[in-house]
Description:
By secondary structure, this protein is of the alpha/beta class. 39% of the residues lie in helices and 15% in strands. It is globular and about 55 Å long. This is Trehalose 6-phosphate phosphatase.
Amino acid sequence: MVSQNVVVSDANTGIITISNSSVFAPSAQKPPTVPSHISISKKKLLKNLELSGAQSQRLNSWVDSMRASSPTHLKSLSSLSSEEELNSWLKRHPSALDMFERIIEASRGKQIVMFLDYDGTLSPIVADPDRAFITSKMRRTVKKLAKSFPTSIVTGRCIDKVYSFVKLAELYYAGSHGMDIKGPTKGFSRYNKDKPSVLYQPAGDFLPMIDEVFKQLVEKTKSTPGAKVENNKFCLSVHFRCVDEKKWSDLALKVRSVVKNYPTLKLSQGRKVLEIGPMIKWDKGKALEFLLESLGFENSNDVFPIYIGDDRTDEDAFKLLQERGQGFGILVSKFPKDTNASYSLQDPPEASDGFLATVGGVETNSTMIMKGAME
């Protein structure tokens, strides 16, 4: 990985418009006549139609993608899938609970490092993103987990928002899809004795632009009932979970009309959300890699990363683990999806009450071996 600058801080639609040229009477004394038809260039008309068709095709593609991110649509589609297809998917991505012993055996003699997405993984997907609260039970589970393993939350949210939900100072936080990284202010001092708070922001120069686009999107989308624009510091989220599906294409057009004026920003799709962020080579996979390096595991064979997430943005992290040949990715989903994850879990309760609680409650040989090596 390219070396990074690390700063150490303290804790604290397509419409065709045809303009008519003036039609003059042959004599100044006669009033203008009304033309019976309008003559325009056939070549120009065909070009306009071609552009309109391309725009319409791109828009339809976006709307289809927005529909695909809807759990209600996924449920509808899954009901049409055969049980054989579901079983085939589960064979490729079996339950992490069913495969727990195999996972622990694979981690033996290595240091487990936990990476967790937030929305849809630690917290259920809710209509109001400001109310995606973590349960007390989940908080206790994550807190217990962090006592045994370095644990990080990797999310599209800004760090301050997620921290207000989680309130655990012993975690690493990677917000804005990994573009804002901060280390724990307590706990796991043996990993970061000289770095009480790791701070890395690869998209720092984009802050003024992000704020500018945020204001434009708020203004542009205020006429769309249910739309909510969230400023995640280094990226923006336009939530359409509460928007009438008939308004999705109109909302997509509004968002695209703003983003197209900023060529260094990219527009992508998540679960019931449109994401706008800097066009840089950085994602959740890069964030995972950076955190492993910060913990001293850059070229180590003694590390076992486990990444749990539910969104397409988590696929970058799943893919990285595949490429490293270390650890596993676990997808949280009730429905079959194309994924780079090795295992699956159905929902946040299964992730917390099941897998994470089991991992946090087991003092594995791998943990004891690593503790002994570091003392």
